[in-house]
Every structure is written in C-alpha cells, then in structure tokens.
Design a protein that fits this description.
By secondary structure, the chain is mainly alpha-helical. Helices cover 65% and strands 6% of the residues. It has a five-stranded parallel sheet, with helices on both faces. Helix 10 packs antiparallel against helix 11 and helix 15 packs antiparallel against helix 16. It starts with a helix and ends in a 5-residue tail after the last helix.
Length: 369
C-alpha cells in the first residue's frame, strides 16, 4: 500500500491512465510528462505492489480520480479485455459524481476507432503536434474550477514556460479565487489585462471574483468593460444582472436578464433569476412561467424546481408544489430547504407522517430558515 500512497495520494490533480499493457511504452512517456508538468498520474506498474490484486487497486484509483484518461489505440479491443472494465468503471464513477467533478477524456494514441460508449465525449489526439498541450490545458482548466489547490502547481509551471499565455493567467486567478486568495487572484487577472486590455475572460472573471468578495461597484465596472468588449455575450449580461440584483437595483437587473435571453434563449439561469424577482413580489404565475422555461432548458436545475414549488404553494396548488419538491429532492437529496418546503406541502395535503419525516430530515441537514 505504501507505493500507492506515495504515487497517488498527493494533493495534486489525480489522473488515472486507462490503457492496454501493449501500449505501456507510450503510456509511461505520457505519465512522466504529466508528472513533470505538475499533475499526479496513476500508473499500475508504479502504484500496485507486487502480488496484489489489480482489480482492487484500479477500482479504488478510479474512484479517487479527478481525471480519467482513456488511452485508445488499434490494440484496444472494444469488446473484451481489462481496459473495457476500466472504461465501464470510469463511466459509472462519472455518473455517480457531480457532472463537473470528474474529467473523462478519450485519448487516441494513434488513428483508431472510438468505442461507442465514448463517442459522445470530446477526445484528444495525442499523436498530433498540439495533442498533449490540448489535453494538459483541459486538465488545468478543470482543476482551476473543481480542485483549485491541485491547479496551482501545474499552472505555475506552465506559466513559467509560457509567460504570455493569458488563458493560463486567468485560470491561475480562478484557482486562487476559489481558494480565497483574493490578492493573488487579482494579481493574475491584472497581469492578463495589462498584457491585453481587450482580453474578455480576464475582465469577466475578475468581475465575478470582486462580486463574490462584496465589491459590487468594482465588479460592475468590470462587467461594463466586459460587455464593451463582447456586446453579444449573454453570460456577461446575466452576471451584470446578478450584480445589479445584489445592489438592489431590480429594474436594471431585469433589463440585463431580458437582454441575456434575447441573445441566448437557452440560458436557464436567467429565467430562474427573473422568476425569483417575480416570486419575491408575489407575481407567482409569471414566476412559474419563468421557472418552467428554465426547467425546459435544463431539466435538473435545482433552484427552478425549488422556487416553482414555492410559487405553486403560494397559489395553493399543493399537489403541483409537492411534485416540484419531489423533483428537487431527487436532484439533491441533501437539500434542507427542499425537505422543509415539501413538509409544508405535505401538511396541506394532510400527510402528517410524511410532513413530520421531512421536517426531521430538514433539521438534520441543518435547515436554518
């Protein structure tokens, strides 16, 4: 067990290399390059002690991974072989985890067929001149947003070699921001902006950081600048709307939500934000229309089900409210508000035992409303 701990239990971004033994040479080269660039790849020949069951170690490694690279070649048989079991384990684990918490990338080592189970995923061709860097960039970006503590080392190493890469600077800022390192994050965003005053990602990410830090006026200035650079970016308008909402300027917030939806009618978050304002002002039928539109665009959006249920409840549409809260709990069984609100709906429907169970569950989950 010691060798496994030494090779894989670091705080670095944990990368599982799924491969056939006949591809071991190129996989070892990939492993060594990833290690040099600050990642923590898992390779069976290093991590599994002699005489131990491979299956036990491999399953544990996949479950603990931040990224799974499914390395494919003409030698990979999509119908048989242990690599297929590894693929099945990786896909199963990806389904169990939050959608954004694990990165699963098919990596072609040479021209070959992608198995049907992976055909819907974006793959990387390692044999292309820019193949490795595309893969490493995707993992750095993933780490910055999901495991920021694991992103710092690979980002710093890459920036040391490529000081002019603005996307890497922005990702470093995002990682520091997610870790609560406000000054370091701002330094990274500022460096990107100083290199290129029209670099939209730096302005929008700095604005989001400033907004999360409560510096609303500074955030608004950055959102304004981002929109000047990209006047047709729906996300920028939506986020500026969120800034206005936090500044209690609902009129401007609604204008921005409307503008965002004119640009992108599929932006579910904008429907939710608009519906929330309507809900707060007792305009529940209008709120339901917006929450329903959000659910149509993104069926598993928790807040839309939760607040549509609230509006249904306020309109005394208790069966509809119960259905919404059931959906919210299906999406997130640990949401205390969903259990609390479902308890109230059950009370109205004379389900006293069910209501009592949900009230108890909400309290156990820390409901503080």
């Amino acid at each position: 067990m010691t060798r496994q701990a030494d090779s894989y239990q670091s705080d670095g971004l944990k990368v599982f290399l799924c491969h056939r033994s006949k591809d071991k040479k190129v996989i070892k080269e990939l492993h060594d390059r990833l290690r040099e660039d600050g990642f923590w790849p898992w390779l069976d020949i290093e991590a599994i002690p002699h005489g131990q069951r491979w299956e036990d170690f491999i399953e544990e490694a996949i479950k603990g991974s931040d990224a799974v690279l499914i390395c494919l070649s003409r030698r990979v048989n999509s119908k048989a072989g242990y690599v297929t079991k590894e693929i099945e384990l990786a896909l199963a684990e990806a389904k169990k985890k939050a959608k954004s918490s694990i990165l699963l990338v098919p990596v072609r080592l040479e021209e070959c067929v992608i198995p049907k189970t992976l055909s819907d995923r974006e793959w990387t061709d390692l044999f292309q001149p820019d193949g490795y860097e595309k893969l490493a960039s995707a993992m750095r970006d993933h780490a910055a947003h999901t495991r920021p503590s694991a992103a710092i080392v690979p980002l710093n190493r890459f920036i040391a070699k490529n000081p002019g890469d603005l996307f890497a600077l922005v990702n470093l800022g995002v990682a520091h921001g997610n870790l609560g390192h406000l000054d370091s994050a701002l330094q990274s965003f500022d460096a990107a902006i100083q290199s290129n005053r029209n670099f939209f990602p730096a302005w929008i990410e700095r604005a989001l950081l400033l907004l999360s830090a409560g510096r609303k006026k500074d955030a608004l200035k950055d959102f304004n600048r981002a929109i000047e650079i990209e006047p047709e970016d729906a996300f920028a308008y939506f986020q500026r709307g969120e800034c206005y909402a936090q500044m209690d300027d609902e009129r401007r917030a609604l204008e921005d939500y409307d503008h965002a939806l004119r640009i992108n009618q599929d932006l579910a978050e904008a429907y939710v934000a608009r519906g929330f304002i309507a809900n707060r002002h007792g305009q529940h039928r209008g709120a339901i229309l917006d929450f329903t539109a959000a659910i149509d665009k993104q069926p598993d959006i928790l807040t839309a089900h939760l607040w549509r249920g609230h509006s249904h409840h306020e309109l005394k549409m208790f069966p509809e409210a119960l259905a919404d809260f059931n959906q919210a709990i299906r999406i997130d069984p640990e949401d205390s508000y969903a259990h609390q609100y479902r308890a109230r709906a059950k009370q109205k429907l004379n389900d006293r035992a069910g209501a009592q169970a949900d009230f108890a569950k909400a309290e156990a989950l820390g409901y503080d409303g």
